[in-house]
Amino acid sequence: MWTLLVPPTRARVFMPNAAKEYEAYKYKDLLLIATNKKYTYVEAQDYCKEKGYGLIPYNRKDLLEPTDPLCYQSKKGCWVSGRDKDFCAYIDPKGDGGPYARKCKEKQHAVYYTKWLKLKKK
Fold it and tell me: Which domain of life is it from (predicted)?
């Protein structure tokens, strides 16, 4: 059974007795997944598609807002959606919180999103 803890600004979902592959957060009407493992950009894309999510688009300011605490302030950095040949969009903790280009073959954390599914009360 899952336990849902709700701090004032976000929700963390924890799965007991399981390795923490990722951390999940509720942000507005979205479910965000921040990986604890590092992936190349292509691996990150494959992983999120397998789970039914998408990488947060680098050019959507409304969706980039939660990357500030998840990628920039945490100093983890993470892939977001956007690619130009061998360079991919990355929230760099050494930058100013916005997306930067990094070589796609580097292994980095990633952040995904999907619509929050509201659970029906029984």
Answer: Eukaryota
Residue 121 in any domain: the answer is no
- Total domains present in the chain: 1
pLDDT by residue (tens digit) across 26-81?
999 899 999 999 999 999 999 999 988 999 999 998 889 999 999 999 999 999 99
Q: Within a domain: residue 38? A: yes
The count of other CB atoms within 10 Å of the CB of residue 42 is 13
Q: Please give the torsion angle defined by the CA atoms of residues 83, 46, 94 and 106, in that order, rounded to the nearest 10 degrees.
A: -80
Global pTM value: 0.78
More confident residue, 81 or 5: 81
Of 76, 66, 86, 2, which is closest to residue 35 (Cα–Cα)? Answer: 76
